[in-house]
Amino acid sequence: MPAITASMVAELRAKTDAPMMECKKALTEADGDAARAEEILRVKLGSKAGKAASRVTAEGVIAAAVNGTTGAVVEVNCETDFVTKNDSFLAFSKAVADLIAAQAPADVAALSALALSQDGFGPTVEDVRKGLVGKIGENMSIRRFKRYAGGGKLASYLHGTRIGVIVEFDGDDVAAKDVAMHVAAMKPKALSTADVPAELIEVERRVAAEKAAESGKPAEIVAKMVDGSVQKFLKEVSLLNQTFVKNDKQTVEQMLKAAATTVKGFTLYVVGEGIEKKVDDFAAEVAAQVAAAKGQ
Q1: Which of 44, 102, 120, 220 lies at a 20 to 30 A Cα distance from 178?
Q2: Does residue 2 or residue 182 have the better pLDDT?
Q3: Average pLDDT score over residue span 66-90
Q4: CA-to-CA distance for 277 and 173, rounded, in angstroms?
Q5: Residues contacting residue 54 through CB under 8 Å, at least 6 positions apart
Q6: Residue 76: phi, psi to the nearest 5?
Q7: What is the pLDDT of residue 11?
Q8: Contacts with 292 (C-beta within 8 Å, 6 or more apart), sequence order
């Protein structure tokens, strides 16, 4: 079994808010698999283990550009929060969003080859990026982007520079903007229950099954408990079924119907989502230094 390091325990604790010893036990039981350990904690501790799941560790900004029915949202990463306030970094991020919307690059590599000049650097996006790395003194990268040009209307919302949303819709502009703000606040995983990724459902079903099995109830009751938990989960993570943040008496779907508006899709980017910042294992480092000194 792999060694369970202090940094592994710290990372799991930061993500789940579970006690240190519970994190270590879960990692040990999971043979060091962090994702499995998180599942184990959810089974043991319930919702307490998931309340910090939306926390992110990587730094950067989300930028968006919308021009009529064409638009884009992009995540540009850097090393520290300090750089996210740098004017040159912010200008680069916005310029990249504008380029994506206007020129439809296929991927980050194609985007990096597009023409761009800034702060005396160029003639491509990649040349500007490299120039700013040297100027600012921090690495930076374009992580991901989503472009829309399908003919539907677009609404965008940026919550500061760390959360960005684009909603594709037909209908009322105000209702669509409200939906974009709702998405930023409630972070749905999919538009409808039918669109929730199968892997997310499988994880939820597995957690629900383990929790239900501990009840000691008959198998048929356990099966109903699991199905009930999964259905509850699907409603909680699908946009149309969520309770609208501006009116807790109606769902998003009901609000949209009243406004004669249809949402075709959305993109939500949260800075650093899914990225784990490197955490130095200082205890192990000190131990190694002491061992090395003794060996001299």
Answers
A1: 102
A2: 182
A3: 94
A4: 38
A5: 187, 270
A6: -120, 125
A7: 81
A8: none
